[in-house]
Write a structure and sequence with these properties.
single chain, about 500 residues, alpha/beta, FAD/NAD(P)-binding domain, 7-stranded antiparallel beta sheet, binds flavin-adenine dinucleotide
């Protein structure tokens, strides 16, 4: 079922067994999981089925610290959420990502990779990926002519990726609109979460839109699935009954914001031709490809963060501007156009490059950011057009981040030399070991994580191992905001798996 909330009579009361707020990757995955249940599911989406700039403007906010994308264009505010233009790169986190690592402050999840494995397998289906197989040996049998670099297996491994072309808005609009169990309300922006007199139970959520109408939604359980920054903003902005915001009794909501650092870091020069098809992919065509990753043993030895390196032909990469430069328009459609136009231009110029450079690759880092309490989302003083204080982002990196990027290429450089496949040259920003800063050209991946981190201890986390907000009996957070640490891979496969696990948990409660 579908209702445009602008067309409802003002002050309508909507009821359901569960209420999911936000119809992006997390919210839609959960809704689909309830499709054949006996329960009434209310799915609230702030936007419509298409881009609407007045709704997108609700995402505007200020940034400070490490240079970032404009907040308005760093996500999409309509049905399907940011998958409307995501790249679809998927890989699960590693066992190590869930463990406490004594050299990474605030690391460790209250669940292990094994707890997520069955949900990863299910998430593969939601994301329309292949089998839940990410070991090189499996793909070596499936795909022809994979040639891994002959690096020492104890030091470097091939982390495999699969590629989704699913845009949730397109794929799942019809099944949801036609469903008898799920009632989707578009133009239903949650603006306030309200508690009962004990302040331990959410009773209702107020929603609003630009037609001037406001409605109330009542349910037994509420799942916030608005994306990391927006989930955080909603908890902080619902402050009439709890002045510090909901779930924020220990001043943790909004802290530990993490991104993936995606930055051109080194060059790999090969003296002889070496087939690199294992390390390259084409959108819509490649089933699986690999990035170079450092083994757990070596990470422990060097006390470094978990990351990977991907290869891009240097003749093209040298002409490509960092996306932190091309993605600076407030309109996400224009930023996307600018980025692709620059890539097309780089490809054109790259075709003219000849000589040794044809066997050279830019090495692009993808690495977790160490959890940092000062990297955070807060409320601004300005309000949006629906009266909700805007979110501000202060993105802050630490010396461990810089050390880990540099160390990764020192290790890969040694392996390239020892195996005699080539030489690695560090980019200038990594040369000075005493410089802990990152240049403005450092890209994020538009991956927002960590601001309602998971911990069994309410003094260390906002949600528990079931993604329930500590101290509130019926409020859950779905999405990457719950990640205590972010691993190297892009977050959507993991956040979908975690959302499906949360969905199962809530099924046991209704
Ligand atoms: C250019 C780009 C490329 C990317 N590529 C990849 C990739 O290759 N791999 C990967 O894993 N990830 C990628 N990502 C990130 C990926 O898109 C996100 O991780 C994912 O979409 C997050 O899912 P989500 O459901 O938590 O949030 P979203 O997808 O952002 O969905 C949130 C939903 O909530 C709605 N909403 C927000 N506020 C409210 C409110 N108050 N009331 C009601 N509804 C609300 C929004 O309209 C939206 O529909 C990319 C992102 C971008 C921008």
């Amino acid at each position: 079922m579908h209702t445009d909330a602008r067309k409802l009579p003002n002050q309508s009361v909507i009821t359901g067994d569960i209420c999911i707020v936000g119809a992006g990757a997390a919210g839609i995955s959960i809704a689909l999981d309830w499709m054949n249940s006996d329960y009434n599911v209310v799915l609230l989406e702030g936007g419509g089925f298409d881009y609407d700039d007045k709704v997108q403007e609700l995402y505007n906010g200020k940034t400070s610290g490490q240079k970032y994308f404009p907040l308005k264009s760093a996500r999409l505010h309509y049905f399907g959420g940011t998958t409307g233009h995501w790249a679809g790169m998927c890989s699960p986190m590693d066992d190590l990502d869930f463990k406490i690592r004594e050299w990474v402050p605030n690391s460790g999840w209250p669940i292990s990779k094994k707890d997520l494995d069955p949900y990863y397998a299910k998430a593969q289906e939601t994301l329309q990926l292949g089998p839940y197989k990410y070991d090189y040996e499996y793909w070596d049998k499936e795909l022809p002519d994979l040639n891994p670099f002959p690096f020492k297996k104890e030091v470097v491994w091939n982390k495999m990726w699969q590629f989704s072309v699913a845009h949730f808005g397109k794929e799942y609009k019809n099944p949801i609109v036609k469903s008898g169990q799920i009632h989707l309300y578009t133009y239903a922006n949650a603006i306030d979460l309200r508690l009962d007199s004990t302040k331990k139970h959410i009773t209702e959520i107020e929603v609003a839109n630009h037609s001037g109408k406001r409605h109330i939604v009542k349910a037994k359980h509420f799942i916030m699935a608005c994306g990391t920054i927006q989930n955080t903003r909603m908890l902080l902005a619902s402050n009439t009954q709890m002045p510090q915001g909901i779930g924020n009794q220990n001043d943790l909501v909004g802290r530990y914001f993490q991104e993936h650092l995606e930055v051109a870091s080194a060059e790999l020069w090969l003296p002889k031709n070496f087939p690199t098809n294992l390390y390259s992919w084409t959108y819509g065509e490649t089933k699986a490809s690999a990035e170079l990753a450092i083994t757990e043993r070596t990470q422990r030895e060097h006390k470094m963060l978990n990351g990977t390196a991907s290869l891009e032909p240097l003749r093209i990469a040298k002409h490509a501007k960092p996306r932190m430069e091309t993605w600076q328009d407030n309109d996400p459609r224009k930023s996307s156009e600018n980025m692709f136009a620059n890539w097309r231009e780089a490809e054109k110029l790259g075709k003219k490059e000849t000589g040794n450079i044809e066997r050279a690759y830019a090495l692009i880092t993808r690495i977790e950011q160490a959890p940092n309490p000062n990297s955070r989302v807060t409320l601004g003083t300005e309000k949006d057009s629906l009266g909700v204080p805007r979110a501000n982002l202060h993105w802050e990196l630490t010396p461990l981040d810089k050390y880990s990027v540099r160390k990764m290429y020192q290790i890969l450089g040694q392996q390239a030399g020892l195996s005699e496949i080539g030489r690695i040259r560090l980019n200038d920003f990594l040369r000075d070991e005493n410089d802990h800063t990152f240049p403005d050209s450092t890209n994020g991946g538009w991956h927002h994580m960590g601001t309602t981190r998971m911990s069994d201890d309410p003094k260390k986390g906002v949600v528990d191992a079931n993604c329930k907000v500590h101290g509130i009996s019926n409020l859950f957070i779905a999405g990457a905001a719950c990640f205590p640490t972010s691993g190297a891979p892009n977050p959507t496969l993991t956040l979908t798996a975690l959302s499906l696990r949360l969905s199962d948990h809530v099924k046991g409660l209704v």
